[in-house]
Amino acid sequence: MLFKSLILLAGTAAVTHGAPAANDIPRDVLTQIPSWGSNPTNLVLHLYAPSKLTAKPAIILALHGCFGSGPGFADATKGYQTLSSSHNFVVLYPSSINDNNCWDVASPSSLTRDGGGDSTGLATIVRWATTTFNADPKKVFITGSSSGCMMSNVMASAYPDLFSAVSCYSGVPAGCLAGSPGSSPISADQSCAQGKIRKTGEEWAEVVRGMAPLPRGKGKGKGKGKGNCKGKEWKYPKVQTWHGDNDFFVNYFHNFEEQLKQWGAIHEVEWTRNETNVPVPGYTKMVYGDGSKLVGYHANGVGHVVPQEEEVDLEWFGI
Ligand SMILES: *[C@@H]1O[C@H](CO)[C@@H](O)[C@H](O)[C@H]1NC(C)=O
């Protein structure tokens, strides 16, 4: 309670000071950012920026799971911080303070572009960081574990123009919890986590498209992978998703498969081959199409927490 009160106080005090400039943000250390603009769901933000940042860095938005926090996820994904200098990126570690610290992947406000929910708050953070660090807008990526993976899929759907690639761990398809009273193991309708929400790829793709009713591009048919946003070309980010089959919190067999169906339909790719023992023994890489848009990693015998493979993620992001 005390910790939360302090965070709230810090957030309130900071609004009057305004958002910091890049040069005012301490480097090589996880730092809390007091203010960055509108924050409809009271998110907290920490980030890690290396001192040796060069021109046009990349941005990685990294989302914790339920009962977690940005600093906790920073500890669990130390590899990003270690690699941030050599790969030239800033990593953003926001925290949700609502609903057992889960990201809202259920309410219409979060499942709608600019609906004023957590997804809107995260988009504001990404835009602020991109401007502040003069980042390359084509090098903005998202990762997350559990609730953070669920939210990664939501962000890729509601803000496809912001992200180029997703790598997420132990989640569910975008929109799987739509209509649930909450997003946490305590508040949610458990049907999705238990793998009981099944749809065709095309039905899942419609759920994705429904979150950001952006004008569609010409010539590619209704709502395919490409479109047009305020005169700017955009397309859905490429997606890589990881899941352990010993996961008793978020059912592997269906949620992994349903996510692959969802993004397979969006990117119009089908399963082509498996690569066994990739990237580590016991894992199977499932390649869709030529492997440039969609990949799944089945982690044999691994539970709900699939350890973050930071180097594989960076390779997927192309940085
Ligand atoms: C490919 O790998 C997945 C995940 O391990 C497995 O479920 C599927 O049966 C494999 N497919 C083939 C044809 O080996």
From TrEMBL:
<keyword id="KW-0719">Serine esterase</keyword>
<keyword id="KW-0325">Glycoprotein</keyword>
<keyword id="KW-0378">Hydrolase</keyword>
<feature type="signal peptide">
    <location>
        <begin position="1"/>
        <end position="18"/>
    </location>
</feature>
<dbReference type="InterPro" id="IPR050955">
    <property type="entry name" value="Plant_Biomass_Hydrol_Est"/>
</dbReference>
<protein>
    <submittedName>
        <fullName>Alpha/Beta hydrolase protein</fullName>
    </submittedName>
</protein>
<keyword id="KW-0732">Signal</keyword>
<keyword id="KW-0624">Polysaccharide degradation</keyword>
<dbReference type="GO" id="GO:0005576">
    <property type="term" value="C:extracellular region"/>
</dbReference>
<dbReference type="InterPro" id="IPR029058">
    <property type="entry name" value="AB_hydrolase_fold"/>
</dbReference>
<keyword id="KW-0964">Secreted</keyword>
<dbReference type="InterPro" id="IPR010126">
    <property type="entry name" value="Esterase_phb"/>
</dbReference>
<dbReference type="GO" id="GO:0052689">
    <property type="term" value="F:carboxylic ester hydrolase activity"/>
</dbReference>
<dbReference type="Pfam" id="PF10503">
    <property type="entry name" value="Esterase_PHB"/>
</dbReference>
<dbReference type="GO" id="GO:0000272">
    <property type="term" value="P:polysaccharide catabolic process"/>
</dbReference>
<keyword id="KW-0119">Carbohydrate metabolism</keyword>
